[in-house]
Amino acid sequence: MSSSSTGQCHSTAAAAHSASESLITADNSGNKAQSPALRAQTPVKLRASSPAFKPSPIKNRKPSSVASASSSQLRLAPAFTPRQQPRPRQLDEQRAEGGTKGHAQVLPAFESMSVGSDGCVERPPGPINEEFFMKTLPAHTGQPPYMLPANHFAVDEQLRRVLVRETHAMSSVGESDLPAQVHSYHSLSPQETVDVFGASFPIRQHQIKAQSIADGRCYSLHRITGTQPASKSALGAIDKWKAVQSPSIAQVYEAFTTRAFGDNSLVIVHELKPLAASLKSQIVDARAQVSEAFLWSLVLQLISALRTVHSAGLAVQTLSVSTILLSPTNRVYLNSCGLADVLALRGSLNMDAAQQGDLQAVGHVLSAILGTSAENYIAVQGQAPVVVPGAGFSPDFKELFGYLNHRLTPVVAIDDILRLAGSRVFVELDAARRESDLLCDNLRLELSNGRLVRLLCKMNFITERADSVMDPEWAETGDRYLIKLFRDYVFHLVNEAGKPVASMAHVVGNLNKLDAGSPEKVMLMSRDEKSCLVVSYEEVKRCVEEAYQELVAPTRR
User: Fold this and answer.
1) Cβ atoms of residues 333 and 276 within 8 Å
2) Which pairs from 472-476 meet CB under 8 Å and 24+ separation?
3) Which of 19, 272, 321, 398 is most enclosed, with most CB atoms within 10 A?
């Protein structure tokens, strides 16, 4: 091959290396000059992967140009400086105030395991195959600066691990003696068993993960054994809760009675929050130390949920550390809504008194959490020790604690709690927005993955089919040979030293241009380096579509 041809191929490959994640949307404007920094890099070229390879002649096709064409005929991709992906922010750092991290040092929900008094295993799903799911994408390994590593194009590693664990928790089914199907739910797997305090005696509630036959989604079934609704119409009370929606409430879907467990059981179906476990198991029982910023976040999330519930004319009445879920990212959810209405636990209390009880329960939750540390107890002569915030807490929090525990006024109001929180409301709001930005940034990286995968599937359906070797109508000539050369150009680049060039930017950029049908030109070389073609991405795309339609045509045998 002539020296001018080699130079064209080298410059084309170097320009392809300048693509990065912003090429997720097709860029058809190839008129900008190439960066001198990129032109100075080590050139790369296509080389024959097998000396015995003999290219098939191209039939019924007139190439756009030949290898002797000047480099000015090629439209090179514009060079630019890739954006650095923002580093992940820990949610506890987002909610930190005054240098204090708002994070409870607790064990994640998926690492705990216990056995209830009834023999039910209260544990999350089994261990994840770390080798398969948690393998970290390689970073820079001595590559030139313009070659971005594979992890630059993927979701943040920490976020990916959380999502993988959540997916695993939702899809796995633990061993148990539960029935195969209850009502319209199957694949039952035991989770946590808690005691709900809403009456004169505790109510044992078994939480079971199950999959719905109707929509295939996973739900949390809350089973109360040996209990029936207060009346025949009591199950209808759950309809009011179906309309209550809040980011801090595990939504209620339905309630029913069943004998599938071998007894009379009441089941209330809630939204499943994977990896989340009760405050009792993660903080109170574990004696975990928490910070003031975490407690402010906890109170504000609970008040937000109660405001939604009370605005709907309802009351939770079962709020406690056992019925509040805490996720690994410090999200808080009310998890037993509707139970008190079905069982008529309110008795003769009016709604105002029941709602006051919910706000008082927030103070009891704080007392239970602070009671895990000996620093938060004071001795009172002739009485049992009393829980109060220790010396490390701010005066505002001490005032909030006294207000919620009726030490300042007999009536508690949500507006007064927000007044005491002050600017901490904006801290919580900013944390939620930063978390949303982080998720959007990572989602943007994965936005076009499905589109590129479909394109890759079509190309691999077409090239090197073993079942069509002897078929003269499906031989790798013409359009199919062009597709094969393009595949080699995208995936089989080597540098002048013969080492493979694994550039994700090169792959993503060229696949996006192909999918968009860009008129930009690209030089394709055979494996023996004896022939070259200069074609546009638009022509290659047409070849791919026509060959694929011919492949799937019902008349082809």
Assistant:
1) yes
2) 475/56, 476/56
3) 19
Measured CA to CA, the distance from residue 333 to residue 327 in angstroms comes to 8
Q: For residue 69, give the nearest of 125, 4, 113, 14 by alpha carbon.
A: 4
The gap between the terminal CA atoms of the chain, to the nearest Å, is 40
Q: Which helix (H) or strand (E) holds 115?
A: strand 114-115
Cα distances (Å, whole numbers) of residue 183 to 31, 160, 169, 212, 444: 64, 34, 22, 9, 40
Collapsed DSSP state (helix, strand, coil) of residue 359: helix
Produce one character per residue of 238-255: b if its CB has 16 or more CB atoms within 10 Å, e if not.
beebeebebebbbbbbbb
DSSP sequence for 178-216: --SEETTEEEEEEEEEEEE-SSSS-EEEEEEEEEETTT-
User: What is the helix (H) or strand (E) element at residue 267, kind and residue range?
Assistant: strand 265-271
- For the segment 478-530, what is each residue's pLDDT rounded down to a tens digit? 778 888 899 999 998 888 888 888 888 888 889 989 998 999 999 998 888 88
> For the residues of 229-244, what is the DSSP string, one character each?
-SSTTGGGGHHHHHT-
Distance CA 122, CA 131 (A): 26
Query: Long-range contacts: 201-206, Cβ < 8 Å, 24+?
Result: 203/227, 203/339, 203/343, 204/118, 205/336, 205/339, 206/116, 206/118, 206/120
Please write the tens of the pLDDT for every residue from 81-139. 333 334 434 434 444 443 333 333 333 333 333 334 443 333 344 555 554 445 555 55
**Helix, strand, coil content of the chain in percent (nearest 5):** 40, 15, 45
Q: Could you tell me how many helices (H) and strands (E) the chain has, helices first?
A: 17, 17
Identify the bridge partners of residue 181 per DSSP, sorted by sequence position: 186
pLDDT tens by residue, 316-365: 999 999 999 999 889 999 998 999 888 887 666 789 999 999 999 999 99
7-to-13, 70, 80, 491 alpha-carbon distances in Å: 10, 10, 22, 20
Report the run of H or E that residue 6 belongs to, with start and end.
Answer: helix 3-16
Whether the Cβ atoms of residue 220 and residue 273 lie closer than 8 Å to each other:
yes
d(CA 127, CA 417): 42
